[in-house]
Every structure is written in structure tokens, then in C-alpha cells.
Amino acid sequence: xxxxxTIQLRDDTIGTTKRRPDHGCLFAVASEQxxxxxxxxxxxxxxxxxxxxxxxxxxxxVRIHRGVYRLRDYPSSPEEAIAAAWLAVGKEHxxxxxESALELLGLGDVIxxxxxxxxxxxxxxxxxxxxxxLHTTIRPLEDEEVVVRGGIRLTDAxxxxxxxxxxxxxxxxxxxxxxxxxxxxxxxPSGLAAAARARGRRVRRVADDAxxxxxxxxxxx
Length: 221
Prior knowledge:
- The chain is α+β, with helices and mostly antiparallel strands.
- It has 2 domains: about 15-70, no CATH class; about 95-220, no CATH class.
- About 45% of the residues lie in helices and about 20% in strands.
- The protein is built from 9 helices and 10 strands.
- It has helices at about 25-30, 40-45, 50-60, 80-90, 100-105, 155-165, 170-185, 190-195, 200-220; strands spanning about 10, 15-20, 35-40, 60-65, 70, 95, 115-120, 130-135, 145-150, 150-155.
- It has a 3-stranded antiparallel β-sheet, with helices on both faces. Strands 6-7-8 form a 3-stranded mixed β-sheet. A two-stranded antiparallel sheet has the order 1-2.
- A hairpin with a 2-residue loop joins strand 4 (about 60-65) and strand 5.
- Helix 6 (about 155-165) runs antiparallel to helix 7.
- The chain starts with 7 loop residues before the first strand and ends with a helix.
- Residues about 1-15 have low confidence and may be disordered.
């Protein structure tokens, strides 16, 4: 049976068969990533580098970072900049973390001046986009330490709170994040206290103070 010509075409210049550009495929990918996609994802949907470059010049694609693009007409979102940085560093190994993870989780009201990402130590030579700070970790994150929000992988509430505290986020902001996380069931006081004990003395003190404040407020209601 003859294969439908809408699926593949023959490139006689190199003697190979390749996919036709699949706009539905690319839209499906981008719609799960705030309208963004990588060059590799575009290629998987049949958009080779030449076609991506041509479509970018025509204005239908917008280049955000090296290898990261946006569908021009896709509605923008507040999380778009974080998602773009995460894709640029590599969604396979990077996670949004620290204050940026708190922002995506809706904990506290800190406004991060940079986008925070965490990668394995082996990926420490990756060049992040401007305005992004790259943290490294020797120990791979456990599955339960990573959640997905809006298609973006990020650290869960306990890890984000403790990472931010260790990075120097104001204790008042940490206390607010803890109160909100406890109220929403994203952390348990005992679980956060246990995780804090694996950190330095300053982080343990900030976490203990935040938990004490949360307990006092709950008791006063």
C-alpha cells in the first residue's frame, strides 16, 4: 500500500526520507510549555533548522534564547521567562528551584531578580541565559522532590523553601512561604523540620523560626 504523501517526503539530494512539517505536532508541544519549544522539539515535528530559521525571519516564530523559540501568536504568560530559561539550559536535567520555584508554587511574595535553576554537578559547564543563576547539586534530586507546574519541572515546596533559605532569602519571606505551604498541605511541620536538619545551622534556625511562627498563627485562629 502506498504511504500517504502527507506524512513523509523524499529528499533526493541526500537520498533520505524525512517528515513534512507538522504544525499540529509543534503546537501541541508548545502549548504545554507556555508557547515555547526547542530546536530539537521542532525537528521532531518535521521543522529542520533551515525551516525554523526561515519561519523566524518571517515572524511566525520568535527566537527567545539560543535553541529556544516561541510561537508568535501564542498568549503570553507570567511564567514564560522562567520556562524559556529552563528549556535553554535543558529540560532533561534542569529544574526550576529556589525563589523561582517558590514563585511558580505561589508561596510567599518574593520577586526574584534572577531565574534560579538547579542542575547536576556534571552539567555545571552549561551556559545559562542572561539573568539566570545556575545552582549545582552532587546528589540527584529524588522523584518526590520534583513536581510539574504548567509543564515545567521544579523543586517541591520543602526543597524550594530550604534552598531559598540557604541562598539567603529574607527570613520573613521564608516564614510566609512556610505558613502558606503548611496551610495548603504542601509541607508538614515534621517533614520540613527533618529536612532542615540536613542543612547548615543557619538554615535550621530559619526553618525552626518559620515553623514556630506558623504554629503560633494557627493556634491564634
